[in-house]
Design brief:
- By secondary structure, the protein is an alpha/beta fold.
- It contains 13 helices and 15 strands.
- Helix 3 packs parallel to helix 4.
- It is globular and about 65 Å long.
Length: about 375
């Protein structure tokens, strides 16, 4: 049996996409007959956080941060205390301190890198130094797990290690509730995510002026742009057409997915590395309307002409054209809906995750590589 040491960024209960993926992988690794002890090392997001002993979690406080990267001396101590007993090192990137530690991994340790996203920062010096460390860590790795072929191809670092790349998409639980069409009293589009610049919400709101018929846009999420977006809705006279719902409960979100006509994601940079909300919409068989975003995994989830269609994220007229074309064609929506269900089942259902983990972690050779 093999012991696994997992290097994370923050504690498993942290509300972040990387940590959610880490926890899923940990749970499945523990259930595998060929895996023994599993230990997870991470930095505390706050001083009050307590480790989950049942999850084998070892947490250390951060002494300081370099941009968004926590630097912790205790993290290094925990690493050297546990690394000798492990057979596999599984590091979630981007994580500068974990990348540095991988350079000191003892010979014979199998190194896996889970590449969630590139370093995206305006500080050129930080990108130069941090990128060099990540590149060296990739040389040490046996496999580099990436969530989509599109992201692997567009990453300046990852694409140089094609022979090591293994594609393991993100997954979510299948929707097991019946669609509640009878409850609907209006037609609406749904978008879910943090209210931050790269989500392209300003242009999406502007596009609603050109959307035909009595169709609303419902926006779920909170973030620093809330007041700005509310002001834009008021300025454009769209209070009856655009609703900012803030945070909602899981049951409310499930109902919103079930009852919407389509899901829209108008992200405008590769900061949208994958788009978990897209696979959640797929699980509800909802057509996807997404921006043309080269290098993002969003274009892996949504296949143009199969599960939905693309538009120019910076052009409100093109966004509205995309929306109108879908909403005015019920036959097209039905085709997309059926295709969404099939694509979700084939690639993004949580039931696919054990196969991805088995192929990426357990076998001595890569069995599902870069295509």
């Amino acid at each position: 049996m093999k012991n696994v040491l997992v290097l994370g960024k923050y504690e498993l209960n942290y509300n972040g996409g990387v940590e959610q993926v880490s926890r899923k992988w940990l749970q499945h690794l523990r259930q595998h007959e060929d895996i023994g002890k599993v230990c997870y090392i991470a930095t505390k997001s706050s001083a009050e956080v307590e480790p989950l002993a049942a999850e084998g979690e070892c947490l250390a406080p951060a002494q300081f941060h370099i941009n968004t990267q926590p630097i912790s001396f205790g993290y290094c101590v925990e690493y050297f205390r546990n690394v000798r007993d492990c057979d596999i090192l599984h590091a979630h990137f981007p994580n500068i301190i974990a990348a540095l530690l991988l350079l000191f991994a003892p010979a014979g340790k199998e190194v896996l890198i889970h590449w969630h996203a590139d370093l995206l920062n305006k500080n050129k010096f930080f990108l130069l130094v941090g990128g060099s460390i990540l590149r060296l860590a990739c040389k040490r790795a046996k496999r580099i797990i990436v969530t989509s072929p599109q992201y692997a191809e567009s990453s300046d670092i990852v694409r140089k290690f094609k022979s090591k790349i293994f594609i393991a998409p993100l997954t979510c639980r299948a929707n097991e509730t019946e669609e509640i069409i009878a409850r609907r009293c209006d037609r609406y589009l749904l978008t879910v995510g943090r209210l931050v610049p790269y989500k392209g919400l300003e242009k999406l709101i502007e596009a609603m002026r050109l959307v035909e018929g009595d169709v609303k846009l419902k926006i779920v999420g909170k973030g620093p742009l809330r007041a700005q977006l509310e002001g834009l809705v008021h300025e454009l006279g769209l209070r009856g057409k655009v609703e900012l719902l803030g945070s909602v409960s899981a049951s409310e979100l499930n109902a919103l997915y079930s009852e919407c006509d389509a899901f829209v994601l108008n992200s405008n940079t590769r900061a949208e590395a994958f788009g978990v909300v897209l696979i959640e919409a797929l699980s509800h068989a909802k057509p996807l309307l997404t921006s043309r975003l080269p290098g993002s995994g969003a274009n892996y989830v949504n296949i143009e002409g199969v599960t939905g269609s693309y538009h120019d994220c910076d052009d409100p007229a093109d966004i509205a054209r995309n929306i109108n074309a879908l909403l005015q064609n019920s036959d097209l929506r039905e085709v997309y809906s059926k295709n969404c269900t099939m694509r979700f089942s084939e690639l993004f259902d949580d039931r696919c995750l054990p196969d991805y983990i088995n192929a990426a972690v357990i076998p001595p050779e890569i069995s599902r590589g870069f295509e």
